[in-house]
């Protein structure tokens, strides 16, 4: 088991990017929109790509799914997942940062991801490469920001591990940063001409 943050980082990045790419490309992803991230849901709603009536259901399912997902990981992987260096895959910066800096870093990285998602999703010319572009972007962002923010960019991704690990440290930067990015990317996108 890789218990060191440095040892796990490349594996985490490529597994996360590959999983997201596979989900986006899968039939289930095409039906559901492959949305696991509340920031993506809010951004698409603000951009006028998702009806407002669906947003509460998506957000509650995304956050609620984080807890059983983390519990399932614990059941499948056992005590190594609870190891103090792993803490249910809870992300945290490798270098000590204030919560404000973590929130800003999460907002900037999430904004990059959301801008790329907004650009490739729904564009017939990019349909063939959308999943690879999104997965690769996610992997690169994880590699670039893990040391400074822990690299979550997804409130639901952080929520379940945070609860299972006993709520260590503030969670607000991992919620507020991505959601601020959703507003910054999504609201102006509504003003852009549709393709």
**Number of E-state strands:** 0
**Broad structural category:** mainly alpha
The share of residues in extended strands comes to: under 5%
- Parts with pLDDT < 50 across at least 5 consecutive residues: none
CATH superfamily: Glycerol uptake facilitator protein
CATH architecture classification name: Up-down Bundle
Q: How many H/I helical runs?
A: 8
Name the descriptors.
single chain; 195 residues; mainly alpha; Glycerol uptake facilitator protein; 8 helices; 0% strand
Protein model, in words:
There is one protein chain. By secondary structure, this protein is an all-alpha fold. The chain has eight helices and no strands. The radius of gyration is 16 Å and the shape is globular. The model has no long low-confidence stretch (mean pLDDT 86).
